[in-house]
Write a structure and sequence with these properties.
about 70% helix, elongated, mainly alpha, single chain, disordered N terminus
Length: about 160
């Protein structure tokens, strides 16, 4: 098992089957940047939240479902790295769907989503690549189609 201290070495070359997931991770990091820009520019939380909900529904929710159904089972539900990722998914889902304290939720999404993506890219995906069979990777590549990356959003509050 790869330990998180090894994550400083950076990501290994990503297998083709996981590249679309990595591209989606990049979109998630862009969301974090957009949130920071919105905060910096003092954009209303209502505008930022609308985009964040759009991103969740059009992109991230489906991304999480695919990981949980097709990627994480390679290591198994009891694997500590999978348990950590699943816990982060649940936490992030609650934050995206939170209607009580929008400002706090947005701030936590910005922080926790970035940490989650870095964990998956630097630790979890590397472990999965090392453990997966070519057949498992081929199945992942077959089932994964390009997700909407939310480029259709008109209110670019971050600019």
């Amino acid at each position: 098992m790869t330990d998180e201290s090894e994550s400083n070495k950076g990501p290994m070359k990503r297998h083709d089957a996981l590249k679309q997931f990595s591209r989606e991770h990049h979109q998630g990091l862009l969301l974090c940047w957009k949130l920071r820009e919105g905060f910096r520019k003092d954009v209303s939380t209502r505008r930022i939240k609308k985009y964040t909900i759009h991103f969740w529904k059009k992109n991230l929710r489906h991304h999480f479902q695919l990981e949980e159904k097709h990627i994480f089972p390679i290591l198994g539900d009891n694997h500590p790295l999978v348990k950590k990722a699943l816990s982060q998914h649940r936490r992030l889902q609650r934050l995206f769907e939170d209607k009580a304290d929008t400002s706090k939720s947005l701030s936590l999404i910005e922080e926790e989503l970035e940490l989650h993506i870095r964990f998956e890219e630097r630790v979890l995906f590397n472990e999965i690549q090392q453990q997966a069979t070519e057949q498992q990777l081929a199945l992942i590549q077959e089932i994964h189609t390009d997700n909407n990356n939310c480029e259709d959003w008109k209110d670019e509050f971050w600019k």
